Amino acid sequence: MSEDVKKQQASTLKIINDIDALYSVELKEMKNGTTVCPVCGKSFLKFWAAERHYEQKNCHKLRDVVKGTLTEMRAYQLYRDVIAETNPKARITMKTFIKSKFYNQFVRFSMFCTLHEIADVLTYLDWLNQIKKLTSLPMLLKVGIEEQTMREFRLFMHATGIMDSKKFFERFKDDLENDDDFFTRSIEKAKISIIWLAMNYDGFEERMKRLPIDYSNRLMELVNQIEENGLGINAG
Ligand SMILES: [Zn+2]
User: Fold this and answer.
1) Residue numbers of the domain that contains 41
2) In the chain, is it the N or the C terminus that has fewer CB atoms within a 10 Å radius of its CB?
3) If you average pLDDT over every residue of the chain, what do you get?
4) What percent of the chain has pLDDT over 70?
5) Nearest to 5 by CA among 152, 131, 189, 196
6) Same domain? 137 vs 113
7) Is residue 15 domain-shared with residue 41, that is, in the same domain?
8) Are residues 75 and 5 part of one domain?
9) Helix axes 213-229, 147-160, angle to 10 degrees
10) Cα 27 to middle of ligand 1, angstroms
11) Are residues 92 and 3 in the same domain?
């Protein structure tokens, strides 16, 4: 993982912790029988209704937690790239981003991509738009943060081989050869293509034999899914 990715991960994890911390205090039961949410101050007649509201963990103002972080900066950059593509003349600044109705969605999308280590977010956006046919931006950002969608995208990466497997292999050759977990997860996360490895890495067969059974099972499962996905395979 590069330094930049590590910093993004740390920033995102801190935000998740900060949000959890907001919701770690008790609901306030008032003398008049109502219950008050300690985060947003909303008052409820029924305790269960207050609990249901509180358990959603989404009544805080996202900006209060995200303000000035690397995560906010990354979300802004994405917003800028996306808006510039649809409207090249738009004047986009951090200020307009903060006021934008897409602020929360871009922050959540950016956090999701960081947590799932989607290396090429612009390719992910293009895939959502062109392959998944999500033409409305709110819908694209909503579907884009579903785990199932991200798994489909990884299969697409494997089936088309569009990740730069050669570059990844050259950079992380030692780790791939010696670290079973890194080897398996790099393939699962579509950072490197298993088909490319099978065709270009002389020690591939030997490497697979050395893998503990649970790891090799995971990779076999992935190969089955790639085949079921039925896209043309290009190992180039
Ligand atoms: Zn609340």
Assistant:
1) 24-59
2) N
3) 93
4) 97
5) 189
6) yes
7) no
8) yes
9) 80
10) 9
11) yes
Burial class (CB in 10 A: 0-12, 13-18, 19+), 109: buried
Type of residue numbered 199: M
Expressed in angstroms and rounded, the spacing between residue 109 Cα and the centre of ligand 1 is 22
> pTM for the whole thing?
0.88
Higher-confidence position of 234 and 119: 119
Considering only CA atoms, which of 118, 104, 105, 97 is closest in space to residue 8? 118
Residues 137 and 88 grouped into a single domain: yes
Query: H/E element holding 228?
Result: helix 213-229
- What pLDDT, in 10s, does the model give residues 45-88? 999 999 999 999 999 999 999 999 999 999 999 999 999 988 88
Q: Ligand 1 center to residue 56 CA distance, Å?
A: 9
State whether the Cα torsion 181-182-183-184 is positive or negative.
positive
Between the CA of 144 and the centroid of ligand 1 the distance, in Å, is: 26
Contact 149, 141 (CB under 8 A): no
Distance 64 CA to ligand 1 centre (A): 14
Which of 133-147, 165-179, 216-230 has the weakest average pLDDT? 216-230
CA of 30 to the centre of ligand 1 (A): 15
- CA of 152 from ligand 1 middle (Å) equals 34
How many domains does the chain contain in total?
Answer: 3
CA distances for 46 relative to 29, 37, 59, 140, 231, angstroms: 10, 12, 18, 36, 53
C-beta neighbour count of 36 within 10 angstroms:
15
